[in-house]
Amino acid sequence: MKILNQKYERLKNEQENVFKAQHEIQCQEITSQFKEQLHFARKISKSRLQRKRKKAIESKIAQIEHQLTKIFHSDTVLKLLVLSEYLLIDSLRDSCMEQLTRSPGERRKELLIEVLDDPALRSSLLPEITIRSMIQRLSTRALLEIENQGSLFVYYDIVQRELNSRSKNACVEYSKLKNNEIIDLKITLDKYENERRDIYRAGSWYPSYEDLEQSELEKNGKDDDITKKEGDKGDRDDDMVIKSNDDEEHFNLLNEPASWRDPPFPKILNYEMERRRKYATVKINKRNLPNALMLDPSETVVTLIKPHQYGTGHATLSRKAKSFGKWMMEFKIVHFPIKESSISIGFDVPRDLVEWKPKDKIAPTPRGTIDTLGQIGKRGVSMPGITKDNTYGRAGIAWKSDGKKSGGLSVINVAGKTFSELESFVQGDVLTFAFDQDNIIPRIQIYKNGEKVIPSGNCQRYLRNCIKDSYWKEKREHINLDGILMEGDLPIINYENYELLPSVNMYSTLRHGIGNPSVRCNFTGPFQYPLEGYEGYGADLNVGSNRRLSSRRK
Asked: How many CB atoms lie within 10 A of CB 527?
């Protein structure tokens, strides 16, 4: 089976390399053609003929805008809206709502903001559903502007509900972004904020009247200068004129970017970044570390120091259900005695204590009758994948080995059950655990030295049957796991309500003088065997650092 897996992986890698080479060639060709077309388009756009055409189009648009303004003037548009509701003219109502909520350009305020104090908004003929629909059409910055004016607006509560709804959607959206994407979003927000402070006098997303008056004066002066220069240069259609820096500043002041209308939410973005920064310091938790284990100064290397005792170390932070991301971590088996020792690595459920003392006399060794799961020889011990929590009855997933290359013991403990495995890990091996929360059914994949570990058929069937049974009980529907789970994937049974954190469990008699079991945990990278699309469980998140994991294997 192992030879077949290796052959499959080799063929898969060769095919991926061929596709990647073809993709790079196609990308280069597309990029080259795009640059040529872009250069040609810029050359044409700067010609005098194109400028004349542009001015003609702008003049036509200005005429249409002027006609719309005359019809839907700020003094009459609300009256027309009320009339449309009274006469039940849907087309007139939609046109009025469009004019009230659309962005007028040149960074001016939406018309609805200008008429907030109009008594027509309080008319009994104007139903609340129409008001709600207009508020939903407004841009985010318009809603923020109304919110800043306080509760004087009669429909202030609807504005707050809409902002809260968008904030919740943004919270979910930001949580789905990768670290480099959330950093780019933060840089974009900072850019908008700096532009706003440089252009506007007040701390608003809209210019004041003084800003607009100054801009119009500058525009008229620039237009006179450009007309004079063009007259001096002649009437050739192919004459090229490049805008000056002053023209660009004026252009940026009057013509707003569309992204300004819905800027990111600063508080939610900062909260998401602070939440992720906590994972950048993921280590082994020394607060509930048992006496049988010892940490090095970096708090990432765990060593067993007491004989005849099981010791479990947990990471400092966990991943929960209804979250997103694809995470990975590596565990280097630094030392593993091949006699009377075991190491178990994987995920455990959070718990306050990983060991506890019974009420009566403590047994000198962990041997004896197991009265309850996790209690060995009357000594309380947390075993990842075996010991269930007291609240939900959940257990984690862990791969356990006795350190022998052949003839040894290797099992996978999951959901309180144990499944024997043919493959084991020994000293010097690097174990990679991949946690995919983006999958429909969250799953865990195990790799040894870069090769995917395929658990036994009994283990995979048991977990898949549990998923199917649970899905049927909750939704009364059958779920087809083909394409959702691949061979070797370990699905999370409690996929709607789980909380898992990395863990290391060790045991040894330490009688033979051949060293103590020791494991080095790597939660942040760089990784020896990186996985494509996965980030470090404790991936670094610093603005200005756009580090991404290199990809080698999917």
From this structure: 19
CA distances from 554 to 407, 437, 482, 530 (A): 31, 15, 18, 9
Reduced to 3 states (helix: H, G, I; strand: E, B; else coil), residue 425 is coil
Average pLDDT score over residue span 365-377: 44
pLDDT band for position 386 (50/70/90)? confident
- Both tokens of 327, joined, read 């995470």
Pick the CATH number of 287-536 from 3.40.50.2300, 2.60.120.920, 2.30.22.10, 3.30.40.10: 2.60.120.920
pLDDT at position 551: 37
Task: Give the whole-angstrom CA distance, residue 446 versus residue 398.
Answer: 10
pLDDT in tens, 490-537: 999 888 889 999 999 999 887 766 688 999 999 988 899 999 889 888
- 346 in Cβ contact with 384 (< 8 Å): yes
The model's pTM is 0.61
Token output for 360: 């009566």
Domain coordinates of the chain in residue numbers?
1-44, 287-536
Q: Using CA atoms, how far apart are residues 52 and 49, in angstroms rounded to an integer? A: 5
Give the integer Cα–Cα distance in Å for 122 and 460.
64
